[in-house]
Write a structure and sequence with these properties.
alpha+beta; 10 helices; 4-stranded mixed beta sheet; 9% strand; disordered C terminus; elongated
């Protein structure tokens, strides 16, 4: 009952004996020498963890009689002799229901004391998948917000570029450039900005991954697909963000663009509305004056307004005493500009 024998897994045999025969040779476990009486068959594609959840494998396990382990191996006398029970189920057996049945049985054997834990690998795997999905969702939201902020930044830069190059756009349009040419020019600019930003981001990400792997001893994997995907998304976001400024630049009128002051103002109309005059019937007095900007429409104002509308607003001096005007004089009207 206390034989010092053991059965080892295929992984243990490879590590300790290599390609030699292991059966019949001695193996030291802690301070106990045991004779190897068997080697378990190798498991093809054996893994020890699936998505971070440990799974059982016989590749690196050693089996010996239970009574031998109790009597001849050192252990804490205050702890239970049996520390773990592994239950192997049939392929189609429901693990969740089986775990519940085992828990009911252990509650009865332990008089209701919850001094044990039941670990179901399938439940752990499901919980790990849910955690991974939540992590992916959070990281996706963070990446989406970053892309939105980057797109807004590129759009603002392109709008400022359109404002700075308004006069240049007018010159190009005047010498024969088409709207498609203007649009293509600003789309190329947005593409270049996004491409440079994507390359800089990839370089920074590679440096951070290398630093984490060096100083924190965490394995980091950067694939070519992830690099290509990040660069492609960066370019697409840049081009989409630069579409509106490019269309806005292409729709600028030639004449207002030529008259625009580069870098300060942008003219969208042909000019300010010229001051116009209208007849205001006033039987008592005659007033004359102009309101509004006279400089920006002087030609139209002179064509449609009397000469005295070009002087600053003031109240005309009274040249006759206030009295009722007869006949045609009553129908005379004073001029007011606005």
């Amino acid at each position: 009952h206390h034989a010092q024998v053991c059965v080892i897994g295929a992984g243990v045999r490879r590590d300790l004996f290599g390609a030699d025969i292991a059966v019949g040779r001695d193996l030291k476990i802690n301070d106990l020498w045991c004779e190897v009486i068997g080697v378990l068959a190798a498991e093809p594609g054996a893994v020890t963890a699936v998505q971070g959840v440990a799974v059982s494998s016989t590749e690196r396990e050693i089996y010996m009689p239970f009574t031998t382990a109790l009597r001849k191996l050192d252990r804490d006398p205050m702890k239970a002799a049996l520390g773990e029970i592994v239950v192997r189920l049939e392929p189609n057996a429901p693990s969740g229901e089986t775990g519940a049945v085992i828990g009911t049985l252990l509650d009865r054997l332990h008089s209701g004391t919850r001094d044990y834990d039941i670990i179901v690998p399938e439940a752990l795997l499901r919980h790990s998948q849910q955690t991974q999905q939540l992590f992916n969702l959070v990281m996706g939201l963070i990446a989406g917000i970053s892309l939105l902020v980057g797109g807004i930044g590129i759009m603002n830069i392109m709008l400022a570029s359109v404002l700075e190059q308004t006069r240049e756009i007018g010159v190009r349009r005047a010498v024969g450039a088409r709207r498609a040419d203007i649009r293509f020019q600003f789309l190329v600019t947005a593409f270049s900005l996004s491409l440079l930003g994507g390359i800089a981001g990839i370089g920074l990400g590679l440096a951070i991954a290398r630093g984490v792997a060096t100083y924190a001893s965490w394995p980091t994997v950067v694939t070519s697909f992830s690099i290509a995907l990040s660069l492609g998304v960066s370019v697409v976001v840049g081009v989409v963000s630069g579409m509106y400024p490019a269309v806005r630049a292409a729709r600028l009128d030639t004449i207002p663009a030529l008259h625009a002051e580069s870098g300060h103002t942008q003219v969208h109309n042909l000019g300010r509305i010229a001051p116009s005059c209208e007849l205001v019937s006033d039987p008592i007095s005659r007033r004359a004056g102009c309101a509004g900007g006279r400089a920006a429409g002087r030609s139209r104002a002179q064509a449609t307004s009397p000469p005295w509308c070009d002087r600053p607003p003031h109240r005309a001096r009274r040249t006759a005493p206030r009295r009722a005007l007869p006949g045609a004089a009553r129908r005379r009207s004073s001029m007011r500009c606005r």
